[in-house]
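Late entry, written up from scratch paper. The run itself happened at the end of the previous shift, but nothing got recorded in the book at the time, so transcribing now.
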Amino acid sequence: MQQMQKRDDWWKQAVVYQIYPRSFKDSNKDGIGDIAGITSKISYLDYLGVDAIWLSPFYPSELVDGGYDVIDYRNVDPRLGTMADFDTMTATAHSHGIKVIVDIVPNHTSDHHPWFQEALASPKGSEARNRYIFRDGRGPDGSIPPTDWISEFGGSAWKQVEDGQWYLHIFASEQPDLNWKNADVREDFKRTLRFWSDHGTDGFRIDVAHGLAKDVLNRPLEELNQWTLQNKDNPDGSNPLWDRPEVHDIYREWRKVFDEYTPARFAVGEAWVEPDHQYRYASKNELGQVFNFEFAKANWDSSEIRNAIEDGLQTAERSRSTATWVMSNHDLVRHASRYALPQIHSRTQHQLAKDWVLRNGESYEENRVLGTQRARAAILLEMGLPGSVYIYQGEELGLFEVADIPWERLEDPTAVRSKGPLKEKGRDGCRVPLPWDDHDSPEPASWNQKFGQNGTFGFSTCKSGQFVKPHLPQPMWFARFCVNREESDPSSMLSLYRQAIAKRARLLTEMPNTSLTWLTDYDDPKVIAYTRSCSSGNGKLAVITNFGERPIPLPAGSIVLASLEIVDNLLPRDATAWILLE
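Output as recorded:
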């Protein structure tokens, strides 16, 4: 157990590992990952060295949106296990010194949620409907949606019910938005936070944290129609949908719930807001942390990444919290692939990567050697930064995006519902089940992008002598990235992650240390270099990343860790080194 785990503020400098439960490990041979599967791999997570695990939704769901359409917020989906399984998993994690964070989805419910079913059976203006956002339509007979808004998954953001009213759904039509001005909604989510805290949960990740408070029930429809769902800017508080000032009242109420426990629970918000507003969510009176998505948005470009670091540090300073650093998650094209593609700035984040996925990975060259090299450099750059690091399952193996999943096998609603210029293939390429063991999947004679038919790379096992297909297909090239292979290879991505996490804990986070100093020795915009004071008075650690064309000299000192081999004290292109300065 790391020293920091003994502190109540463990989360301020933690390494958090995100688990997408349905794709992590299948224990009951049905092709879907489950809670018991997570428990079976706690020793692997301990071996990796992480401080906490964050579980994406595992609640009862129709799986319209990968579990983010929740039917029951205080239970486990029977396909994934039971509450007893959750309690066993939590106890096992805690016995290894690993904290547990669960995903809370407060913006919307499933349309199968008892509340929404009650709303459909209730008349206009009823208390049941007031828990959601219902409005009359436009036109003489109300047959036109209240506004022209296009949902995040494509199509109208409104759906009409039998009596003619329309309800708002920012995402899929099966995900009706809640009305957070309703007292029932507020109180029920407090009960949910207490429920999971009572079951040993140490913290929460808040989905769509910037979207809860909406001002759409009383404004004239003509005024609302001037906005779009895709416009998330709100500098003056006039946006009716996103980042509204009232959302902070909700989180101040939640903070009182978190503080009922010893140690107090914490939360990290998914808030896609302008950097200048992020600090509000991370205040000690609200959630405590917020994701720095500027870092995840950045191309492999020194100026973009430096700006993202400075934005994250500024947010942390203004909130009096710590920064968060993330490169991949369940919603993003895996960064090893993003870094392997041409690095072209676009107005829309990762647009080139999304276009590449839409065209089954055939529109641009994916240089995997270069992508791996940059991903290795990126994790050392990230791990040296002050604050918390969030790792998405599989990135420690160096996994690339599976861009060529057959359309008929896709699960993400984006693939089906987006149309025209907004068409996307979706997020399934980063959600393919993990490859654990190559013994049940013989290596093909030639490597290609074909999908395996006889084996699941240890994700699942045989049932009645037959392999059960995983819920998303695994490409045959996954065999190169299986855990059993990488564990025995000292040059693997997994070995690099293990070393970086261990050295980070020993040198940088054993005692509180949440600042950095830019190293001015390099007068080169293609170099990012900073120093951190080491724990226990061990001097200073320099973290240096070379984005330039030519190798650069390293300062005098001992090489602690490097993403590539260092020859003649020169740092190669697209590489990072940690140097304990003399």
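The longest helix spans residues 302-319.
(Scratch paper discarded after transcription.)
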